[in-house]
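Example record

The entry below shows one chain as it appears in the dataset: sequence first, then structure tokens.
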Amino acid sequence: GVAHAAHEAADAMLASMTPAEREAMNIKMRQEEAARQEAARQKAAKEAEARAAARRALAKQNPKAKPIPQIVKEAPESSCSMWDRQKCNHFERQFIFNQRKDSLKKAQDELNHWESEIARGVTQTPHGQMRYSTMVRIVKEIIEYIQTHGEEKAKQDLKNKEL
């Protein structure tokens, strides 16, 4: 049919071209494709910017932005512990599960990180306070265990799933 005839014509045209002409045609086709892709990328970027501008305009019209919550009350104390996970919520159990419990240095680095986050004031809600205080308490329990029993015992206990 028609498609077959078009392919034969294209093959004949390619056969009549010199290698330099074919290379020039390939270069031109790659440049055209790169230009099409760049145009599509620029169009997508303009559309994204237009959506962002529309969101900003809507936010100016409706200034009901959520204020930064102030601490109204202290967080309830959690009774979660590495040694009694029945009293832990899902977040706390996941936090314990994901901690490296076999390296004193890593545990101390982790403790320094969470304490610095608290010092920066990232715990503005009671829920956040509870999470951060629980993380600090659990990391301290890990450090105490490693200091008491040593890293080798901690590694063995971790391997035996006792930690």
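Notes for this example: The chain has six helices and no strands. The two ends are 73 Å apart (CA to CA).
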